[in-house]
Amino acid sequence: MKDVPLESVNTFIRAMPQMAALDISVMELSAGHAVMRLPFSPRLVAYKDTGVMAGGAIFTLLDSVLGMAVFTALDTLMPVATLDLRVDYLKPAVTGCEVLASARCTSVTRTIAFVSGVAYLESEDDPIAKASATFIINRPKNEGTSE
Amino acid sequence: MTPDLFSRLSESGVAECALDNIPYAEFLGFSLRRKGNDVSLHLRFDPMHVGSPGRFHGGVVGAVLEFAAMAELMWRAYQAGNTIETLPKPISLTVDYLREARCIDLYASAIIVRQGRRVASIRATAWQDEEQKLPVAEAQLHFLMRH
């Protein structure tokens, strides 16, 4: 994908209602790589005793960042859809803390993109969750078939 | 998902209760339905659930499957007289996205494949058609059981 200013990518993201509702934004973007941020919100808490955010919110952040990493690995903007996504919850988030997530698209074929990533609080080296996914790429039908 | 919620749901004539004691569940709009001895999760469609135009964000589908699995675990424990006070902790969640989740209500239910003392293994299915023949997504989940 050609260089696109972060601001326009965030405008694109905000147009997706669930991303806007969770206030997810893009922090970094390069070919095959993306970093996103999910701010803490009391509405996303699942465990009232500890104030820890729901696994579902982290899952949504990871699905989003993995999808974005796939977009950046493609030459042109094409619709993609999650085929499968596995998330391992390594440890709970900390109440009041924002969660970051980074993803790398490791391999792209004509139809499928393979991508993995982590969610973390401070450092990517100390993740709270890790994710691995495949996405299906919906290329336009008239596109050349060079594999 | 408190014992109080389950006892309300057990009363004859009560078919559906909102999950109003969990902020994230309330934020997305989850409620729990009972049909005979079985429970399922119901998510009334709201425009804020949308990711790409015309369909649910994959993260919301994941969250629905995760809560359906937690509900099944807690409901079966309640019925057996071993009430679980806090939400079971997810260890891992693997989602297969099978069909586009359209902008209508989404349902999910789960079965316990195996429950050991420490870990439970669950399968969950999400659907949107009355006959439950066209799943939009399926998941395999593991939970840590806390005592």
General description of the model:
- The complex is a heterodimer of chains A (147) and B (147).
- Helices cover 23% and strands 39% of the residues of chain A.
- Chain A has helices spanning 6-14, 17-22, 55-73; strands at 25-30, 33-38, 45-47, 52-53, 80-89, 99-108, 112-120, 127-137.
- In chain A, a hairpin with a 4-residue loop joins β3 (45-47) and β4.
- Chain A is globular and about 55 Å long.
- Helix content of chain B is 24%, strand content 36%.
- By secondary structure, chain B is α+β, with helices and mostly antiparallel strands.
- The two termini of chain B are 16 Å apart.
- The interface between A and B is large, with 37 and 35 residues.
Q: Nutshell version of this structure?
A:
The complex is a heterodimer of chains A (147) and B (147). By secondary structure, chain A is an alpha+beta fold.
Layout of secondary structure:
The complex is a heterodimer of chains A (147) and B (147).
Chain A: H1 6-14, H2 17-22, E1 25-30, E2 33-38, E3 45-47, E4 52-53, H3 55-73, E5 80-89, E6 99-108, E7 112-120, E8 127-137
Antiparallel strand pairs in A: 1-2, 2-6, 3-4, 5-8, 6-7, 7-8
Chain B: H1 3-10, E1 16-18, H2 23-28, E2 30-35, E3 38-43, H3 58-79, E4 89-97, E5 106-115, E6 119-127, E7 135-144
